[in-house]
Automatic annotation (TrEMBL):
One of its GO terms (cellular component) is plasma membrane. The keyword Transcription regulation does not apply. InterPro entries: Cyt_c_biogenesis_CcmB, Cyt_c_CcmB_bac. This is Heme exporter protein B. It comes from the Bacteria. NCBIfam families: ccmB. Its main location: membrane. Required for the export of heme to the periplasm for the biogenesis of c-type cytochromes. It is found in: Cell inner membrane. One of its GO terms (molecular function) is heme transmembrane transporter activity.
Length: 222
C-alpha cells in the first residue's frame, strides 16, 4: 500500500474513533434488536434457534445502513473528496481503502459481539461457526455494495431513506444464502456451497465495486 493510501486509512480510522457516539450507534442498535427479539416472540429455545440466524443477519444489515451514509459525506462537505479526485492516486484504490476503514470501524465490532448475542438466540456451536463464516464473507460485501449507493446519493441532503430503499432489495440474496448456510449447519449438513456463493459474490464485488463507486462519486460531484 502506498504512503497516500496508508495516510487515508489512518485518517479515516482516527476520525471514526474521535466520533465515538456515531461509532456506537450501529453497535447499540445491533445489541438492542437481538436482545429484545426473544422478549417479543417468547423464550421457546426451538423457535429462537430457528429464527436466530435471520435475526442476526437482518440486524447486521440494518446496523450497517446506520453508519453508511457518512462514508463519504464528511469528505464531500469539506472538499477533501474533490482534492482526492484531482490527486494522482487512483480513485478506485482510495474508495477501496475508505470502504475497508468503514468495515473495520462499523462492522468488525458487530462480529466481535456475535458470540455473546448468539447465546440469547440459543444457537448451537455448529450454527455459530457457520454464522460467523457467513458474516466474515458477507459483511465486506455489505460495505462494498452499500458504498455504490452512498456515492449515488451523496449530493442529496437527506439520502438516508433513499439509501435504505436502494440497498435492502440488493441484500436479499446475501441474506438468503447466509441463513441457508446456518440452517444447513443446524441439520449437520455441509454448507460449503452457500459459502462458495457468498465468497464468489464478494470476489466479484472486490473486482467491480471500486470502479462503480469511483464513477458514482464523479457523477455526484458534477
Amino acid at each position: 500500500m502506498s504512503a497516500s493510501l496508508t495516510a487515508i486509512l489512518r485518517r479515516d480510522l482516527a476520525l471514526a474513533y474521535r466520533q465515538r457516539s456515531e461509532l456506537m450507534q450501529p453497535m447499540m442498535f445491533f445489541i438492542l434488536v437481538i436482545s429484545l427479539f426473544p422478549l417479543g416472540i417468547g423464550p421457546n429455545p426451538e423457535i429462537l434457534q430457528k429464527v436466530g440466524p435471520g435475526v442476526i443477519w437482518v440486524a447486521a444489515i440494518l446496523s450497517s445502513l446506520l453508519g453508511m451514509e457518512r462514508l463519504f459525506k464528511d469528505d464531500y462537505n469539506d472538499g477533501s473528496l474533490e482534492q482526492v479526485m484531482l490527486s494522482s492516486t487512483p480513485l478506485p484504490m482510495v474508495v477501496l481503502v475508505k470502504v475497508f476503514a468503514h468495515w473495520l470501524t462499523s462492522i468488525v465490532p458487530l462480529l466481535l459481539l456475535s458470540p455473546l448475542l448468539a447465546l440469547f438466540l440459543n444457537l448451537t456451536q455448529e450454527m455459530y461457526w457457520a454464522l460467523l463464516l457467513t458474516l466474515l464473507l458477507g459483511t465486506p460485501l455489505l460495505s462494498l455494495v452499500g458504498a455504490i449507493a452512498v456515492g449515488l446519493t451523496l449530493s442529496l441532503n437527506r439520502g438516508g431513506v433513499l439509501l435504505a430503499l436502494l440497498l435492502l432489495p440488493v441484500f436479499i440474496p446475501l441474506l438468503i444464502f447466509a441463513t441457508a448456510a446456518v440452517e444447513a449447519a443446524s441439520l449437520q449438513l455441509p454448507y460449503n456451497a452457500q459459502l462458495a456463493i457468498i465468497g464468489a459474490m464478494l470476489l466479484i464485488s472486490l473486482a467491480m465495486a471500486p470502479f462503480a463507486i469511483a464513477y458514482a462519486l464523479r457523477v455526484s460531484q458534477n
